[in-house]
Amino acid sequence: MDNKKLRIGVIGVGYVAQNNFLPVLPKFDDVEFVGLMAKNLDNAKRAQKLCGAENTVASIEEFVNLGLDCAFVLTPKQCHAEQISFLLNAGIDVYSEKPMATTLKDADHIADLAEKTGRKLMIGFNRRYAPICQKAKEVYSSIVPDVIVAQKNRPQTEYRATLENAIHIVDLMRYYGGEVRNVNAISKFSDPYYETYTTAQMEFENGASGILVADRSSGQWEETIEIHGGNQSVLINMPDSVTVTDAKEKHTMEMTPLAMGWARSEDKLGFTNSIRHFLDCVRNDQTPLTNAADAYKTHELLDRVLRSAGLPAMD
């Protein structure tokens, strides 16, 4: 693609869009924010003030007719499969929030559709792009970890809590440890759609061991990853710090001082970097890191966790 500005559009104007996308996208000088879509047009017009989008529309047909190069799907998860498919078939590259579908069948169909249409589909596993997670990846880019302990805890449950939130941490476990051979999980619940916790032991194909903890009765939100192996250790405390330890020293990188005290969630949690990565892939005709085929593997692994724990799977 030449140096002309990318014509972009966004579907969805909820919390994630308003906090982590609409304030970020106008900052890039190589994009033209052409359109914003929401079923409630008044909501789209209110959100327009955050981003300066040129047009607001209420239907996906109107959205596609704006002449877009790429689009961001930031709607609730039950909308993703239909909207992504429509956009891919219309010849538009897509960035979608996770999950790309609520069933493995739909996720497989979408990944296949992206390949058949030749369009780019990137799934927003933004944690991979967070500066502290990228720092950890630098340590374990050539070293195979022995043990990964990953926790994503919150003080209260929600509908399908493990599917809704643990998918991020499961994706990071794959990012650092590779593919998983065996999964053994347990969960506590009175209603399987509102579980109290899920824990899982994973055996990676390279011999590493992983432990997942996804609790919904903790004191506060907590997200941590410990990685050990190769006589090195990494501790990630999302979204603020990463500590790397070897036999000689311990070094901690903290986000807030790096940003002169102005570090924001879109930067610390990797949204800004993930958006930039997608735009660069569209412009330079490259495959995104979290492309549909790779993202499907995370969805499939999470399905195995759910099944092993006795929770509703991604049927």
From TrEMBL:
Tell me which Gene3D superfamilies the record gives. Dihydrodipicolinate Reductase, domain 2, NAD(P)-binding Rossmann-like Domain
The record ties this protein, via Pfam families, to: GFO_IDH_MocA (PF01408), GFO_IDH_MocA_C3 (PF22725)
SUPFAM superfamilies per UniProt? Glyceraldehyde-3-phosphate dehydrogenase-like, C-terminal domain, NAD(P)-binding Rossmann-fold domains
Q: Residue ranges of the GFO/IDH/MocA-like oxidoreductase domain?
A: 158-232
Pinpoint the Gfo/Idh/MocA-like oxidoreductase N-terminal domain residues.
6-125
| Name under which the protein is recorded | Gfo/Idh/MocA family oxidoreductase
Give the taxonomic lineage as stored in the record. Answer: Bacteria, Bacillati, Bacillota, Clostridia, Lachnospirales
